[in-house]
Amino acid sequence: MTDINASPNSNIRENISRIPNLIENVVNQYIVRPTGNPNIEGISGFVFDVLGPETVFLDSEITDHYVENNTTVQDHIALKPERFSLTGYVGELADLLPNSALSVLKTVQSLSSIGGALPTFTDQATQIYGKVAGELSKVGQVINQARNIYGIFSDKNTASTKQQKAYLFFYQIWKSRQLCDIETPFGILKNMAVESVQARQNEGTNIISDFSISFKKIRKASTIQFSLLPSPGRAQNIISESVNNGQTSGPEVANTLLTQTFSSEE
Amino acid sequence: MNRIDIITDNPKQTMEIVLEDGTSFQLDIRYVDNQSGWFYSITYGDFELLNRRVVNSPNMIRMFRTVIPFGLSCIVNDGQEPVFIEDFKNGRAKLYTLNEEDVALAETVVARVD
Question: Do B40 and B50 contact (CB within 8 A), yes or no?
Fold first, then answer.
């Protein structure tokens, strides 16, 4: 039997062993499951059947200060939090694209093998294949440990229709003030809170609802500690140390100064 | 009546003032920018007087004249108040300690009884 630990096969084996750790590290950095198609993450795991327009708003408040010559100067720019809005449709029946890879896999798994036609592999190749298969199962276990927000909230509802489930999901993240990570066409937005939700079912159907949702980024204040030293001006006087001027009885002065000074107003 | 001549323009100062009878009191003065004024504190034995404003007066502590045997006078050249941090350094304002005779004299200035 060939030793697969020997070089260069040992490198292959080491690399294979690292894959579960790599996947685990990546998974634990996301709230949303990082796997799947580009649209599969959606809003903390929730994905509309049909996506409508998605809009990101980046606004700033620029002040106008009027000066003497009847023009304005703009010397303050306050950045408002990022906002994001989207519209999506939820239907009871959704015509989604087939997962071609999955169908091929199912087809292959359903085929029975013909002994005489099976390819033959060396012992070395068989061992590496076995190693890959073993690590692959570990990767699958790690990925399945990652839960997304949608999974957590969807466990809590008993709705019977997809529209109700979608509504309850948004209702719950709105009511619980849940912060969401949102996948947009322009990038991932983190710490987004629901600003408004509009669930609407038009009069022509009862199997499709459209949802308009807007999110606003949550920015939190943080404390900063800093030293007052050195401080200019008044602050310097307040925090300065007291100076000891020593002991004195002072030069004697004629007390007629009192009467001269304070009686002179008469 | 003795002039306290060791006050500088430092915003916080402490000093020991020796009286005629050999006793002494501690005088702490500080300048507060926001108030545009000087404030003083006196410690004489068990007697403690804290954070009173320095004002142009023949005896700023006349209400304690039966409690302590001395007085404290502030005289500003222009008759106004000590409002600048340099006032005692440049001589615009001056502080004086008063003995019991001076305190009595100050009373005649403050309140005239016919």
Answer: no
DSSP A206: S
ipTM over cut 0.95: no
B25, B19 in Cβ contact below 8 A?
yes
Contact B99, B23 (CB under 8 A): no
pLDDT at A190: 86
Q: Where are the domains of chain B?
A: 2-113
Out of B8, B33, B102, name the one closest to residue A237 (CB): B33
Residues of chain B neighbouring A251 (CB-CB closer than 8 A): 2-3, 5
Neighbouring CB atoms inside 10 A of A182's CB total 23
A233 touches chain B (CB under 8 A): yes
CA atoms in the 13 A half-sphere facing the CB of A16: 19
The beta-carbon neighbor of B106 closest among A240, A252, A258 is A258
CA angle A259, A261, A263 (to 5 degrees): 55
Four-residue CA torsion sign, B53, B55, B61, B62: negative
Contact A255 B102 (CB under 8 A): yes
Q: Classify residue A49 by its DSSP letter.
A: S
- Taking every pair of Cα atoms in chain B, the longest distance, rounded to a whole number of angstroms, is 44
Give the pLDDT band (50/70/90) at residue A2.
very low
Chain B (45-84) residues lying within 8 Å, Cβ to Cβ, of chain A = 58, 73, 75
Q: Is residue A144 within 8 Å of residue A138, measured between CB atoms? A: no
Q: Rounded to two decimals, what is the model's pTM?
A: 0.44
How many other CB atoms sit within 10 Å of the CB of residue A30?
A: 14
Whether residue B52 is predicted with pLDDT greater than 60 in this model: the reply is yes
Q: Report chain B residues whose CB lies below 8 A from the CB of A245.
A: 6-8, 13-15
